[in-house]
Amino acid sequence: MMKIDNTSITAKNVGETVTLYGWVNKKRDLGGLIFIDLRDRSGIIQLVVNPDSKVYELASTLKNEYVIKVTGTVQMRQSINNNLKTGEIEVIVNELDVLNRSAELPFDLNNVTALEDTRLKYRYLDLRRSELQDKIITKHKIMNSTREYLNSLGFVEIETPILCKSTPEGARDYLVPSRVNTGSFYALPQSPQLFKQLLMVSGFEKYYQIARCFRDEDLRADRQPEFTQIDLEMSFVDENDVMNVTEGLIAKVFKDVKNIDIELPIKRMTYEKAINLYGSDKPDLRFDMPINDITSCFLDCEFKVFNDVINSGGIINAIVVKDAADKFSRKDIDKLTLFVKVYGASALAFLKYDNEFTGSIAKFVNDTIHQKLIKTLSLTDNDLILIIAGNKKMVKASLGALRLKVAKDLNLIGDAYKLVWITDFPMFEYSEEEERYIACHHPFTMPQNVSELDDKEHALAKAYDIVINGYEAGGGSIRIHNMEVQDKVLESLGLSKEEANTKFGFLLKALSFGAPPHGGLALGLERLTMILSNTENIRDVIAFPKTASASDLMMEAPSEVSSRQLDELHIKID
Asked: Residue 472: which of 191, 222, 212 has the closest Cα?
């Protein structure tokens, strides 16, 4: 008979005999009675071994993480523990079997102080903790809810290849050498983008996949070299159709996983507005601290730095930290100055307002500027104004990051979920590294106006991202289905017809055979799980994650391989 969950035992079972399995989470010997916290995936239940029990001697030898089987009688507890699901009952043990013993643990599972590297090396032990198990189960619930929703709308779940062609037009590919095709390589897919478009050409009309993706890029708290997307694609749709389907999916996931009703339709904001107000295309709207343009306030000031910025076509922007001037010392401001320098700012000016201005540039605030600032920024007593001047890209990025830092430092970020669509993305963005314009999303994104493709700085795309609490939870676009438009976009990216055919020839050929209008979106499963399980570390929601250096400490991967394997692949290590 399959084991029952420990936490399925309730007061209704008092007087019954039950058989339970699990791990010894903790043992307490009170000089007579032995109390054992028995843990399985569902939670903890208290066992009691009486001193006159035939299993008392065996129970006294138990240690944490021993695997045991017990049979006993359910009874009410004298002192209820409201912190446990089973806190009003306990089991008097009549029979006890030790199914397996545990070696000495590398760290205490009940009081984890070990470094993350140690916990990753013994990940199978760390995963025994309910804190991590709950996050992995949240991910399972999201996948289950996703399948239920999309299946109900007639979507077909289709797997796409893991070994595919390298199309280096974005992040770096992971390459896989081919043994049977000497000197040739597969690439692991960065996403199923090309395949899902081919499925639309194939006439499936509604496709989805919970797809594994791989990108060889520098890692951070919300990135891993391998990750999972909830991938959607639909034929005969426009942006609103894709966004509406996605909103329904997000609403169901939030309801199923957190029992939260999100307000539909989700708010929309243009890319330009997001950058201007929040310095980011993934704005965190859980707190109010927009970026203000105060360039006009300083048009006639005597501060040479500001004058030089204005004369060179730059801007002066500020954020207002309400009722916080007295919370920031000069030393605190100096720390914020160092912070914004990471984003390219050369300095951080500040003003404190309390009926009059004090601060680093207060002597340049004449009566005219004084009145303009009060009106433009809606200032009240004890407000702190943080100011950065320079070129627009740097100013917005610096203040956007500063806005988040100040909000975190002052605990201004609430627990609510704030969702927003970011729309009207640029079609292209300039890459300083490649010294050319590249696709902002990918080269198969439909432009809003084909006639504007030559104006790369201002051309807009039919693209959209969904942002939740400052995370880009997903993004998508309407795709190009017309060969003439596709050729023009590839030409705008500086790709010759030969290069385009070498990289994307199979897709371009497919688009010539009556491709339908289509579009879609991909949601980051791990990011969505992070948001719904209240963690900022993507490793918390992956069963066996990699470190920041893309290493698996448990498996000791990547690792060297034998010379025989390399010979079979005709590869030499230089």
From this structure: 222
| Helix, strand or coil, per DSSP, at residue 136 | helix
Q: What is the pLDDT of residues 296-312, one digit of tens each?
A: 999 988 899 999 999 99
The terminus-to-terminus CA distance of the chain in angstroms comes to 58
Q: CA-based angle 514:518:519, to the nearest 5?
A: 155
**CA-based max dimension of the chain:** 92
Give me the pLDDT at residue 31, please. 79
Sequence-distant (6+) residues with CB within 8 A of 341 are none
Distance in angstroms (rounded) separating the CA atoms of residues 395 and 476: 28
Angle at 239 between CA 234 and CA 243, to 5 degrees: 80
- Beta bridge partners of residue 27, listed in sequence order: 36
Contact 514, 220 (CB under 8 A): no
Phi/psi of residue 310, nearest 5 degrees: -65, -45
Phi, psi torsion values for 90, nearest 5 degrees: -150, 170
Q: Does position 1 have pLDDT exceeding 90, yes or no?
A: no
Phi, psi for 165 (deg, rounded to 5): -95, 140
Is it the case that residue 407 has pLDDT exceeding 90?
yes
Contacts of 96 (CB under 8 A, 6+ apart): 49, 55, 58, 59, 68, 69, 70
Q: What are phi and psi of 168, to 5 degrees?
A: -70, 85
48, 215, 501 from 170: Cα distances, Å: 60, 9, 17
Q: What is the mean pLDDT of residues 170-177?
A: 88
* Residue 494: both structure tokens together: 């500086």
The fraction of the chain above a pLDDT of 70, given in percent, is 99
Strands 349-353 and 383-390, bridge-based pairing: antiparallel
Rg of the chain in Å (alpha carbons): 30
What is the average pLDDT across 234-258?
98
Mean pLDDT check: name the lowest of 63-77, 209-223, 461-475, 537-551. Answer: 209-223
The answer to whether the beta carbons of residues 501 and 542 sit under 8 Å apart is no
Token pair belonging to 227: 């990750």
How high is the pLDDT of residue 168?
61
Nearest to 333 by CA among 384, 393, 399, 297: 384
Q: How many helices (H) and strands (E) does the chain have?
A: 15, 22
3-state SS string over 377-415?
A: HCCCCCEEEEEEEECHHHHHHHHHHHHHHHHHHCCCCCC
Q: How many CB atoms lie within 10 A of CB 138?
A: 21
Which tokens is 144 given? Answer: 């289950």
388 and 361 Cβ atoms separated by less than 8 Å: no
Identify whether 189 is preceded by a cis peptide bond (ω within 30 of 0). Answer: no
Q: Decide if pLDDT at 321 tops 90.
A: yes
Relative to beta strand 156-157, strand 436-439 is: unpaired
